[in-house]
Write a structure and sequence with these properties.
5% strand, mainly alpha, binds zinc ion, 5-stranded parallel sheet
Length: 278
């Protein structure tokens, strides 16, 4: 049997670093050792986890914020989305594993340092634990941002990185149009697809088809992110299996005739564990 090369989508890369221990165990048992990612997937990971962590760090560093508990309550009131709320859990877990009292006003500095170090470790772990499928110079401008981690200037470096990362959201400098041109035949196939799929998948595919129509020479990163799953399906090397939890890849990968595997969600694995332990 030939050894499977696993190409990880963001929906798998994120829980490898931040999910319940039960789900981490499931992923580790099912993903083998040969794990690949691309700089585009790294970008999505940074967007979903590193950027919120950095924003939380910046909030905590503000003069009027007196303690971690204070920052957590401001953060909670500011954001409603599940993804941003999960940063709360991450921060609390991280700091309590270092016995930091969240209400202790004297612990603000050491808490900031721990969060900054967590960000540094996450980024370097990506480079260490995964193989990159090579550099594609035509990809989104965000894939080229580098964080120069300098302990003495962290506040400035993080705030500059946050600015740089968001700069391309509204201005039309994403630069992924060359990638779209290079892969126009595959995009065409997706655009013209009349796959016989169920209603939910059909509306997902139609959304992608609508977004394909809006591709032009001057794209913003908000637009490029909307086509993220399509970009990842095109990026998947033909000798690898895409590992994911998203429905969209069911039809995208079928259309492109590539191999993929949809894993159960974290919730499904947790439910299974609960039934077993009853
Ligand atoms: Zn972009």
């Amino acid at each position: 049997m030939s050894k499977v090369k696993h190409f990880l989508d963001t929906s798998i890369l994120r829980p490898i670093h931040s999910s319940s221990s039960e789900y981490k165990k499931y992923l580790n048992n099912n993903l083998g050792k040969d794990r690949y990612i691309s700089h585009y997937i790294q970008k999505e990971f940074v967007n979903g986890l590193i950027i919120p962590m950095m924003s939380f760090y910046s909030l905590l560093r503000m003069k009027h914020i007196t303690s971690v508990a204070d920052a957590l309550s401001v953060w909670n009131n500011k954001f409603n989305s599940r993804e941003l709320k999960s940063i709360n859990v991450l921060v609390v877990n991280l700091l309590s594993s270092h016995y930091i009292d969240l209400n202790d006003l004297r612990k603000k500095d050491s808490a900031s340092k721990l969060i900054a170090d967590y960000i540094r470790r996450l980024l370097s772990l990506l480079e260490l634990r995964f193989k990159f499928i090579g550099v594609d110079n035509n990809l989104c401008v965000k894939t080229k941002l580098v964080l120069d981690y300098d302990l003495d200037k962290l506040d400035n470096i993080f705030s500059q990185y946050l600015k740089d990362f968001k700069k391309s959201d509204d201005s039309k400098i994403c630069n992924i149009n060359t990638f779209f041109k290079t892969h126009s035949s595959q995009i065409d196939k997706i655009q013209k697809s009349t796959l016989n799929i169920d209603k939910t998948d059909r509306s997902g595919l139609e959304k992608i088809q609508k977004n394909i129509k809006s591709i032009n020479n001057n794209m913003s990163c908000v637009k490029c992110a909307k086509l993220g799953d399509m970009i990842i399906s095109i990026l998947t090397p033909s000798n690898m299996r895409l590992e994911h939890t998203d429905n969209s890849f069911d039809y995208l990968m079928e259309l492109l005739e590539k191999t993929h595997y949809k894993h159960p969600s974290e919730l499904a694995i947790q439910k299974k564990a609960e039934t077993v332990s009853k």
